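Provenance and format

Records in this collection were gathered into a single text stream. Each protein contributes a sequence line and a token line. The two records reproduced below are adjacent in the stream.
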Amino acid sequence: MTPAQHQGQNRLPPTKSAESVGRLCDDSPGLERLVRRARYLEMVDKALQQILGTSLAGHCRVANISGDTLILQTTSVAWGSRLRYLAPRLLEQLSRQLGWDRIKHTKVQVRPEAFPQRETPARRAHLSRQSAALLRDVANGTEDPDLRDALLRLSRRGR
């Protein structure tokens, strides 16, 4: 093994992902084009999100631009219908904002699986004071110790 080969094996990976992507792009023109395209689509998506506003923005995103067609993805048929209705206005605003002259059409795809599911925080159940008192009364009259403990724990959620 030559010293150069040995040195290449011991080289540590870059610590910053931007640096490593930059180096890869320098070595691969195809990858550089791909990264530029992804960044462009991300920029178009951000512009679209601003135009859509909060109610629709979470249910729609730019998937691609193919020829003269902007391809949008949405979470449901209902949101897709709304996007199709708004499409002419969206294209007009995006064209004005981004300086487009070639994008003339939109295509809407319904793809709920393409959107990450938002986890809703678990809500702790609360009981009224009356319900909590009733649970304590039932617990005190219950012979089964496991059931009694469970009812008492549940009763502590009373307000």
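Adjacent record:
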Amino acid sequence: MSASSNFTVGNHYVPQWYQKRFFEPGSGSSTLFYLDKTPDKIPLPHGKVKFKKSIYEQGTKKCFKQDHLYTLLFGELATDVIEKKFFGALDQRGNEAVGFFEDYSYREGAHEAFSAMLDYLAAQLFRTPKGLQLIRVLAGAPDHQRALYALLKYWDLYKTIWSEGVWEVFHCKNSPTKFIISDSPVSTYNKEVFPGSKEVTRYGIALFERIGTHLVFPLDAEHCLCITNLQYIRNPKIKSTKFRENPRYYGQGYFDLRKIQRGREVSEDEVIAVNHILKTNALRYIASSREEWLYPENRLKEKFWTKVGGPYFLHPDPRKVSFTTAIISGGGKGPSFGTNEYGHYDIDNSKAKKLREVEWRTFQAAKEAWDERDRRAGRTSPKIDLNYF
């Protein structure tokens, strides 16, 4: 293989800038505890084996890295163009977007940050060893080299589905435990899609097309982004494995940046549950500032997959979600464009009307359930700004 002298051999599939966001706040630390879930075996005499060391304390340069993961081969020639040109630009914008979303508000730069965040999430999903396995399955790529070409073609596959969901950034500033890093930072949780299921065995994730699949992406040690399908918020008791109405790819749509939920603090138990989801989603490696955070299963209150985190786990507050039926732009002397909440261009088609009839009732019940939850906990229900809707 022929390559230039400044060729990038070691590829970080979880960028160093992202890893550094998980140093314990105020600790001054520059290392992470790095856990190998399946350490290699060392053969011993007489057919015996022992395992290599499973945990290391090391800097970000050595974590989440694999040689030639993105190297494209052309006969005897090789190029690192994916690392330097493709991921280089996405990482630069992604770094800025993640910082913006850590303290999100609808302010100057929100449009650019949202676009960059969508791009970064899309690329980060597929750039890991686990993600490249997913793209091989989705694209029918027979080998790693073909998977890299598929990555360049289909990397933004899920952006439309995510932009039609409800986004929330929650935090754990007062929790003793902080969020960990996974070798698959863009993780999924669907309470009815078990880790050992045929779906996860084949794809490595719970499919985003399913109503009850949450996207979970820690922004740093204290903040986490979660994207939830709108239909699941409107009807949280629906079967979570059902496919959402009209899952779209590469479709045009709109997103209201004013309605990203933020400011909710999650409990210590919920942080542990999120870490359990991240560890379960990891292909092989996880990392954190403290060694004890790498074993959330030891402190998990409810270990059965359908009940992890409790009945409201990862759900945004439905009282902060408007029952919007369409977003339309343009008009006047120019053309107009719009879609309904299901991504249909025929905004008031019969299928949408039937879904709304059911979801209006279940949505009101969901909001009442959150009010009752607050009453039982002795909390005052949040004041909702009517301008928000």
